[in-house]
Amino acid sequence: MEVKITLENFDEEVLKSDIPVIVDFYADWCGPCKMLAPELEAVAKELEGKVKIGKINVDEQGELANAFSINAIPAVIVFKNGQETAKNVGYCKKEKLLSLLA
User: pTM for this structure?
Assistant: First the structure.
């Protein structure tokens, strides 16, 4: 499941989620971000119902990007029970994303 995250729905979709959330900070113009998208989709399919993929466009949601000190993209942050548990900056494969959830 992939959800567009904004400042307005961040608390509900990420912090109050009852399943882990992988939040992808990206931009439409970012090549590595486009490369990461199918890897995230693969994780979403493999763990359907057990994980949520949240997408934050840093160009549209600068306040959220600043709140999490995102200064390079793609950046992925994993949240479990409302807490940040893992972070990765740059392109990575599905296996690395899965290891962030462990």
Answer: 0.96
Could you tell me the residue ranges of all domains in the chain?
Answer: 2-95
Give residue 5's identity as a one-letter amino acid code. Answer: I
The CATH superfamily holding the domain 2-95 is Glutaredoxin (3.40.30.10)
pLDDT tens digits in sequence order for the chain, 102 residues long: 789 999 999 999 999 999 999 999 999 999 999 999 999 999 999 999 999 999 999 999 999 999 999 999 999 999 999 999 999 999 999 999 999 999
Token digits for 46? 């493999």
Catalogue the active-site residues.
Answer: 30, 33
Please tell me the distance from the alpha carbon of residue 61 to that of residue 84, in angstroms, as a whole number: 18
